[in-house]
Design goal:
The protein has 157 residues and is of the alpha+beta class. Helix content is 48%, strand content 22%.
Length: 157
């Protein structure tokens, strides 16, 4: 269970801060919800306390856990499906895990594909989303601006 003030990551949205824990009645059932302010876009999300782990809500990593992420960003690209639709689906599944190394892999591979042949509009959006997910956690862990985090990501590839 998380507490008010905890820094957490919500897969597909990025890092945020638990602002409060509220009781809400939805569809006749009263449940506790984490009210999380997501750093990117200043968005607020409501996550049920019961089931938060299944959704993938997790604490932000410690600074030392970013080193493997940098290694993934600088490593060789992994093979991706030639079909953009399947490739997009596979990349989306990696983002949904909330695992930083998988997010970094998506970023690295898409940036390199974009350097050779331009990405489709959908893949550009996916790349932007992946960068925001990773950079939002980096800003909280390293106490840096999002621009600085994006610079670190880009220079690591």
């Amino acid at each position: 269970m998380f507490n008010i003030g905890d820094k957490v990551v919500y897969p597909m949205h990025g890092a945020g801060l638990i602002e409060t824990i509220e009781e809400k009645q939805i569809l006749g059932e009263t449940r506790s919800y984490y009210i999380i302010r997501i750093k990117h876009g200043n968005m607020q999300v409501m996550v049920p306390v019961k089931g938060a782990e299944e959704i993938g809500l997790r604490p932000v990593v410690a600074a030392g856990h970013l080193e493997p992420v940098y290694k993934v960003l600088s490593a060789e690209s992994t093979p991706m499906d030639e079909n953009w639709n399947r490739r997009n689906r596979e990349n989306m599944e990696k983002l949904k895990t909330g695992d930083l190394c998988q997010v970094a892999e998506v970023i690295r591979n898409l940036v390199r594909v974009d350097r050779g042949k331009k990405l489709s509009t959908g893949e550009k959006k996916l790349l932007t989303s992946a960068k925001h997910i990773l950079s939002s956690e980096m800003t909280m862990v390293l106490n840096i601006s999002e621009d600085k985090a994006l610079d670190i990501i880009d220079s690591s590839i």
